[in-house]
Amino acid sequence: KARQTILRKLPNADPWEISNLLGAFPALEPNDEERSEARQTILAALPNADPFTVVDLLRLLCRLSELESSNEERTKARQVIITTLSKTKVIGIHFLTRELRALGATDDEWMEVRQTILSKLPNADPWEISNLLGTFSTLEPDDEERAEARQTILAALPNTTPGTIPDLVHGLSILEPTNEEQSKARQTILAALLKATPEEINRLIRTLSEFQLDDAEWEQARQTIITALPHADSGTLYGLVGLLRLLYPVHDWLAALGIEST
Predict the structure, then answer these.
(1) Given pLDDT bands bounded at 50, 70 and 90, which one contains residue 78?
(2) For residues 72 and 148, what is the distance between their CA atoms, to the nearest angstrom?
(3) CA-angle at 51, arms to 49 and 55, nearest 5°
(4) 132: nearest Cα among 147, 110, 114
(5) CA separation for the pair 57, 181 (Å, rounded)
(6) Which residues, 6 or more positions from 180, have their beta carbon under 8 angstroms from its beta carbon?
(7) Rounded to the nearest 5°, which phi and psi values hold at 159?
(8) Nearest in space to 251 (alpha carbons), one of 243, 260, 242
C-alpha cells in the first residue's frame, strides 16, 4: 500500500519531490513491475532536474536496478548527464562526471564530456578554470585536448588579477606544459609582481618557485620581495622573509636587508 501511494504521487511531482518520495522506496521491497515504473519516472524527470537533483535521481536509479552498463535505461541516464553538463555551473560538473563513471560511460561519451569542459573554459572565472581542469585531467584527455586547455589558460593569465594567477598556474601545471608555455607563465607571473600587494607577492613567488627559473628571473623575484618588505603587515612579512631565506644564501639575504651576518 505504501509503495502504491508513492507511485501514484510521482507523475505530478517536481524532480526534487520525486527524489524525496523515492528515497525510502527501495527499502519497501518493491516488485519488478514497481521498480520499472519508478525507474521510468526517474528517467522522465531527469531532463527537467537541476544538476544536484540529477545526481540524487541517478543514485536512486542505480539502487532500483542491477542493470548492466549496456542497458537502455543506463544509456538514457548517461545522455541526460551529458546534456545537463552543458548547462550546469562549474560546481556541479565534478558530481555529474562521478555519476557518469558509475553508469559505465563509453569512450565517445567521455569525449563529449571533455569537449563540454573545453567549451566552458574561455568564459569561466579563474577559480572555475582551476576546478574544471581538476575534473578534466582525470578524464584522460589526448594531447590535442591538453594543448587546447593550456592555450586557454595562457590566454587568460595576462587578463586576470595577481590574486587569481596561482589557481590558473596550478591548472596549467597538471596539463604537462611545454617549456615555451612554462616560460610564458613565468613571464606573466613576473609582470604581475609589479602590481601585486605584499600578500599577493608571497603567493605569486611560491607559485613561481614551482618552475625552473633562470638567474635573471630569480633575481627579479628577490628584488620584488625586498621592495615589498617595508609595506607588508607582520603576517605577510614573516612569509616574505621566509621566501628570501629560500631564494638567497643566508649571508646574502641578510646583506640584502642591510644586516651584517656574523
Answers:
(1) confident
(2) 34
(3) 95
(4) 114
(5) 42
(6) none
(7) -100, 10
(8) 260
3 state SS of 238:
helix
Give the whole-angstrom CA distance, residue 101 versus residue 114: 13
At which residue does the C-alpha cell 541526460 appear? 80
237: nearest Cα among 249, 229, 247: 229
**CA–CA distance, 224 with 191 (Å, rounded to integer):** 11
CB 196 within 8 A of CB 231: no
Chain centre distance of CA 128? 6
pLDDT at 55: 76
Task: Quote the pLDDT of residue 234.
Answer: 77
Residues with Cβ < 8 Å from 128, sequence gap 6 or more?
Answer: 90, 120
Which has the higher per-residue pLDDT, 79 or 52? 79
In the 8-state DSSP scheme, what is residue 219? H
Closest CA relative to residue 208, chosen from 224, 228, 227, 185: 185
pTM for this model (two decimals)? 0.70
| Per-residue pLDDT reduced to its tens digit, 132-178 | 988 999 999 999 999 999 999 999 888 888 888 888 888 898 898 99
- Quote the pLDDT of residue 69: 40
**Is the separation of the CB atoms in 146 and 174 below 8 Å?**
no
DSSP classification of residue 23: T
